[in-house]
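Please think about what follows:
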Amino acid sequence: MRVPLPPRPSRPQRARRRSAQERSAAVFAALRNLLIEQPWGDVTLEAVARDAGVSRQTLYNTFGSRYGLARAYTLALADALCDVIAEAVAEHPGDPRAGLEHGLLVYLQSAADDPLIGRVREGDAHPDLVRIVTADAAPLLVLVTGRLEEMARAAWPDVDDARAFARTTARLAASYVTMPPEDDADPADLAAELADVLAPR
């Protein structure tokens, strides 16, 4: 059965939606900046609200709690990383391995620069923060798997099992959040090794 599309919003509704997106972007930017300066345990919703230029009640209404904010930030970050992976793959039409290697390299480098991921890797994150990428990782894996499957079908129409590729790659990508590469591992070498294994033949 075809699912009916929602009615097209009026201009005021579209304006409010854009405003909500801008507020979320400001909140995530504020959280990111605070995490650069201090551990997650010291970050308060009051500080995030102040730096984002929104009320504390707006944060509670939108995210519910600190955990909800961290989860929303993580999902937004994952979505953005999927965008850069897809863009990198698209730069190598007809060469899945080269495209995937490029995409994985961008992912590894970008993930290493994010302060929330850095806090998890350094071991000073609150247990709730770790849960987002471990025990409670289902929403994250569903999002990333869906985005990677969409990318694979668009970039490589002849791929045999885009779903299996996406699920495997999503879980491997998540593992590098909680278990970073060895200190002496070169991201370029690691991306090449992973592409050798994961790239569609």
Q: What stands out?
A: Residues 1-18 have pLDDT under 50 and may be disordered. Residues 120 and 130 are 6 Å apart (CA to CA). Residues 10-64 form a domain with the Arc Repressor Mutant, subunit A fold (CATH 1.10.10.60).
